[in-house]
Design brief:
Low-confidence stretches: 1-6, 181-189
Oligomer: single chain
Radius of gyration: 19 Å
Number of strands: 0
Order of helices and strands: HHHHHHHH
Shape: globular
Number of helices: 8
Strand content: under 5%
Mean pLDDT: 84
């Protein structure tokens, strides 16, 4: 039946067609529009979640994750760096994150916790990724996998860390008027 053909009375109506953009109706990016690095972050997030919740060893998490559907489309080198780097540097990253929290780390969702690890790791070790891209990617991860307003919390914490971990880059953006206000409070987020 074409869209212009009237439907019979009582027949269920089809929802309107979604425009063919790179985002879903909830605002998350569609799988087809994601880069290999974005996919690597998604798989790393799932793997870090397993580590935080189950305490699983990185090697067994890695073997499990590489067998998941779609892993072949991810940047496996970036995934490796995120998974193993975040786990190896967890205590140092938590020490950076904790002062910006309005609650104990144990009360933070494992998804938001792992997302913040990814952001901090990329701020520190992936200097080829602009800080605003790191921030945006982590917000997208939290939107897609986290709680309702978890992305706001992740944004507040990572936006607060960016001036410390990427001082020159954030300073240059601030000077040009391109940066959002750093140090955004996580209160109520």
């Amino acid at each position: 039946m074409s869209e212009n053909t009237p439907s019979s009375p009582g027949a269920p109506q089809r929802p309107p067609r979604q425009p063919r953009t790179g985002v879903t109706s909830t605002g998350a990016r569609k799988a087809a529009s994601k880069s290999n690095r974005s996919r690597a972050r998604e798989f790393a997030l799932q793997a870090l979640y397993q580590h935080l919740v189950g305490g699983n060893a990185p090697e067994s998490i890695d073997a499990f994750t590489r067998d998941l559907a779609g892993f072949h489309k991810a940047d496996s080198v970036h995934y490796d760096a995120l998974l193993h780097g975040c786990i190896a540097n967890a205590a140092d990253m938590d020490a950076l994150i904790t002062p910006l929290l309005d609650r104990k780390m144990a009360e933070i969702s494992p998804i938001e916790h792992a997302t913040m690890w990814i952001g901090v790791y990329e701020f520190q070790h992936c200097l080829d990724v602009p800080w605003r891209v790191v921030l945006n990617e982590c917000i997208e991860l939290a939107k897609e996998f986290g709680g309702t307003d978890g992305h706001k919390y992740v944004n507040g914490v990572l936006n607060g860390l960016a001036p410390k971990l990427r001082a020159a880059e954030v300073g240059a953006d601030k000077a040009s008027g391109a940066a959002p206000a750093a140090g955004t409070s996580t209160e109520g987020a």
